Amino acid sequence: MATIRTENLNYTYGIGTPFEKTAINNINIEIKPGSLVGIIGHTGSGKSTLIQHFNGLLKPTSGKIYIDDVDIWENKKNIRDVRFKVGLVFQYPEYQIFEDSVFRDVAFGPKNMGLDEEQIKQRVTNALESVGLPLSYLDRSPFELSGGEKRRVAIAGVMAMQPEVLILDEPTAGLDPRGRDTVFSLIKDYHKKTQCTVLLVSHSMEDIAKYADTLLVMNNSEVFCYDKTVSVFEKSEEIQQMGLDVPQITRVFNELKKRGVNIGEEIYTVNYAKKLVLEYLGKAGEKSC
Ligand SMILES: Nc1ncnc2c1ncn2[C@@H]1O[C@H](COP(=O)(O)OP(=O)(O)O)[C@@H](O)[C@H]1O
Ligand SMILES: [Mg+2]
To answer: What are the residue ranges spanned by the domains of the chain?
Structure first.
């Protein structure tokens, strides 16, 4: 069973206006339960439009979306459940914080779900731990926190709803490299701990390749490929041609291969590269003895 499945999904903005734009075209994908999928593509390729369909925020112009094998638009009453099942963290979510304490902000979702006070408290505490913020922050105003901390509070607000699927749209946009690593690691840990399905949108291949087991590459409103991360990197030249940066380390090894030094294929993390280089040097050493 797929957690999310789409069938010929299309969405067009501004139908009948001069600004008409088909943002996603004929999308057919299946997302397996428990996977960590990276969604990448250049700006304007349709990533945000696609994920807003997964929790019923956008209604397809045509085509279908199934969550746990239920067509979510078959009965409009389903949509409320879908919003709780599939949690969406928007890009720059900190702009949507409005409560005057961290506790109230993170508790907003669980309250809407109709949970009792004790359950809400438990969920807020767990979520704050998941984003690595101390419980002493609960009484503080979110507005006096740093940008990175505010973002983590906003992410905690969605985690507190304990969705079956957690979707994050460019969760590290605008953060410095350390902030980026922190946010990515906490998402990875959360995925490992909860075993829930996580969809991570990014326009940076460099970042996402380290974390996602599967990649969905969008190009001009369509799926360019959807496969295991390793297999997607077999197409790294084409991906570069569509304006996406493949990781620096991948480019180095592709260039070496062109020059006759073939150390290995589909290298996209520095750690893996190090292992292969050491193996290669070891072999070279043996030969010269
Ligand atoms: N609210 C909107 N109204 C009209 N066009 C939109 C709107 N949102 C996005 N688009 C257009 O749809 C296309 C896909 O956008 P989007 O899904 O935001 O891509 P991405 O998230 O990959 O940058 C782009 O051409 C964009 O300009
Ligand atoms: Mg976007």
So the answer is: 4-235, 247-289
Q: What is the model's pTM?
A: 0.90
pLDDT digits over 25-57, tens only?
999 999 999 999 999 999 899 999 999 999 999
CATH homologous superfamily of 4-235 equals: P-loop containing nucleotide triphosphate hydrolases (3.40.50.300)
The letter for the amino acid at 129 is: E
Mutate to test the pocket of ligand 1, among 49, 50, 204 (most ligand atoms within 8 A of CB): 49
Atom of ligand 1 nearest to the CA of 14: 4
CB 233 within 8 Å of CB 266: yes
CA distance 188 to 198: 9
Centroid of ligand 2 to alpha carbon of 168 (angstroms):
10
**Which portions of the chain are predicted below pLDDT 70?**
284-289
Q: Which ligand is nearest to the CA of 40?
A: 1
> What pLDDT sits at residue 289?
44
Could you give the CA distance from residue 135 to residue 140 in angstroms, rounded to a whole number? 10
| 11 Cα: distance to centroid of ligand 1 (angstroms) | 10
